[in-house]
């Protein structure tokens, strides 16, 4: 009976040794791996924050009342230019800002009005794309930072082999291998998340830009209508 218990204990201990938490993997990766993983964590937090902030801002910018242009047409047709400006200022959205710029130029040549709307549109697009380029940078930089950790880990492993005098012990190489593997995985995860977030934000921004262009064309058509 005692012999059977002794045979079971090594099996239990072996199964416990194979179980490693993510935190333990990072801590076993040495100082270099911990620094790399810390940088990747900061980049991940930045990417998530920028994505959420831009997503909410673009979502709010896309909420335009369907009757907005009808109200603008009514005010312009009635000659109430100031009322149309006040309506645009009240809405305070990218589309409304474009129309407000056009309304303020009524009476001038259509080419000047079109130029003013285009310039206002560029400014609104710049506001919508605020910090989006940072997402693109993180999506490209994170995997490279992870690969940097991989190189550091391999250098540590080779250094340990050189100092071992030809006697290789897997435990001796564990720090370098942990650094190499965990940083690579961490970099790829942060890069993938950032890349998906960037493309989603770009797609949402394109929808707002399309709506801005359609509304500006509708406004110019309104001015071209015969009185």
TrEMBL record:
It comes from the Bacteria. Its main location: membrane. The keyword Ligase does not apply. It is found in: Cell membrane; Membrane. Keywords: Cell membrane, Membrane, Protein transport, Transmembrane, Transmembrane helix, Transport. It is a multi-pass membrane protein. GO terms for biological process: protein import. GO terms for cellular component: plasma membrane. The chain crosses the membrane at residues 31-52, 132-156, 176-198. Residues 94-213 form the MotA/TolQ/ExbB proton channel domain. Belongs to the exbB/tolQ family. This is Biopolymer transporter ExbB.
């Amino acid at each position: 009976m005692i012999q059977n218990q002794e045979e079971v204990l090594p099996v239990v201990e072996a199964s416990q040794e194979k179980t490693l938490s993510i935190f333990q993997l990072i801590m076993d990766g040495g100082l270099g791996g911990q620094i790399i993983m810390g940088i990747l964590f900061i980049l991940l937090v930045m990417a998530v924050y920028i994505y959420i902030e831009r997503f909410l801002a673009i979502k709010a910018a896309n909420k335009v009342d369907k009757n907005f242009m009808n109200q603008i047409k009514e005010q312009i047709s009635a000659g109430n230019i100031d009322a149309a400006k006040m309506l645009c200022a009240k809405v305070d959205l990218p589309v409304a800002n474009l129309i407000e710029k056009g309304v303020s130029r009524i009476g001038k040549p259509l080419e000047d009005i079109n130029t003013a709307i285009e310039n206002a549109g560029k400014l609104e697009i710049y506001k919508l794309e605020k910090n989006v380029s940072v997402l693109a940078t993180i999506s490209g930089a994170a995997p490279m930072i992870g690969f940097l950790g991989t190189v550091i880990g391999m250098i540590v492993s080779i250094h340990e082999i050189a100092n071992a005098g030809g006697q290789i012990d897997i435990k001796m190489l564990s720090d370098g291998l942990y650094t190499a593997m965990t940083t690579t995985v961490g970099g790829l995860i942060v890069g993938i998340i950032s890349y998906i977030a960037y493309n989603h934000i770009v797609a949402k921004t394109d929808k707002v830009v399309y709506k801005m262009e359609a509304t500006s064309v509708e406004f110019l058509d309104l001015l071209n209508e015969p009185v």
